[in-house]
């Protein structure tokens, strides 16, 4: 993705979140934000790739704040919550391949912020299940999967990976000959899922876990 | 106010809002945000006064975007909405001095964002009227006004000035000997009220309108 006018605000909002999650010390947080203010012109410019620029900025703050994974607890809670929701959905509903695709999309849309009411998530998600997709390319996807030998599935944030896992199970059932690879980040960057998170969520059962080889949000290819 | 760790994020959010209000052109907005990313280390530092640093940054963007008052329409709508709400409140309620103080506080709390439902504002505000103040120094204030010869009242944003005006009317009734001065910004800066806004809202009837002499958010004294 190319840099957009809104990216700077996102860089700074995430930087603030990093400083808040990394330390309770207000002076330390201020120091981090002053470093961010100095650094940001290096990472936000006309030719910046926001995923790379942002990540380099965030990692600079991780080093300064001496915290290698400020989102650790946030991710733990997101994963716990999503896991519970997916388990409930499995009990309540008979989930087909297309449903699981919709759930993976819904999981991507909903932000698993700390404190989000799990009851409400279930309701929101069931609501989405009953809606049509606004852009629906599922038939094309399923046709491609029929003809494919391998699938490389790139995961994004913690929390939503539990919805991805459900979708991958359904893919595995529908296309048993398919060789599935699931890629996550090599090491922690904001709330992105890491290889460790995939192991923890038992993705080994639905495919082969691989590392994206980077510690950059998104997946520069 | 001294600089706080959250000020950088506020600088950037306001910069983005300025670029959005000043132009529809996405390239122009991006250019403005790149300038903001370069400039921000000059305005956000350990010894910065946020009201001054922020304002200098915003005015730099005004020049770049060739728009001397990007919030003009936003302020017009805020004023129109607040004026209507205050008129309705006058009709519905008998408002005493202490009520008017509470309304001036409520007017400060509620953000007159474009699209805010006026029906809801009235409800919110009436709700606040029935609540006790969390920190109540009104008695001290009223005692000071009794002994004072002059009052300098500093206004803040457009919209809420209509609540300030109601409060000033009640002050004038209660302390007829008091000489009242009301200060607003000399020229537009974000959504702060200017001397022109005070004239438009007929503040001349409740006191003498004066300029803060600056184009800086807040009032550096």
Keyword list:
mainly alpha, 7% strand, homodimer, Helicase, Ruva Protein, domain 3, Glutamate Dehydrogenase, Chain A, domain 3, 3 strands, 57% helix, 221 residues
Query: β content of chain A, as a range?
Result: 5-15%
Instruction: Tell me roughly what share of residues is in helical segments of chain A.
Output: 55-70%
CATH superfamily of the largest domain in chain A: Uncharacterised protein PF01937, DUF89, domain 2
Rg of chain A, Cα atoms, Å: 19 Å
Order of helices and strands of chain A: HHHHHHHEHEHE
Q: What do we call the CATH topology of the largest domain in chain A?
A: Glutamate Dehydrogenase, Chain A, domain 3
Structural class of chain A: mainly alpha
- Uncertain ranges of chain A: none
Biggest interface: A-B, 26 and 26 residues
Question: What is the number of helices of chain A?
Answer: 9
Explain what this protein looks like in three dimensions.
The structure is a homodimer of 221-residue chains. Chain A has helices at residues 7-22, 26-43, 50-64, 72-92, 97-109, 118-129, 138-147, 161-174, 195-200, and strands at 150-154, 179-184, 208-211. By secondary structure, chain A is mainly alpha-helical. In chain A, helix 2 (26-43) packs antiparallel against helix 3 (50-64). The longest helix of chain A has 21 residues, at 72-92. The radius of gyration of chain A is 19 Å and the shape is globular. The relative contact order of chain A is 0.13. The mean pLDDT of chain A is 92. At the A-B interface, helix 1 and helix 2 of A face helix 1 and helix 2 of B.
